[in-house]
Amino acid sequence: MKHQFWSLFIATLLLSSCNDNQKLRLEAQKKEAQRKEVIFTNINKGWDFQSAPINDVAQNSLSYWSQWRTFMDELAQKPKSSISAFQKKSKALTKKALELKDNIPVQYNTASIKSRISILITNVSLLDMYMHLTQIPDKKVVQQITEINLELIALQREMDKIDIKSKIPVETGESEMLQMIKDTLRAIPSSVTLPSNTPRVE
Question: Least buried of 82, 143, 146, 187, by fewest C-beta within 10 Å?
Answer without folding.
Answer: 187
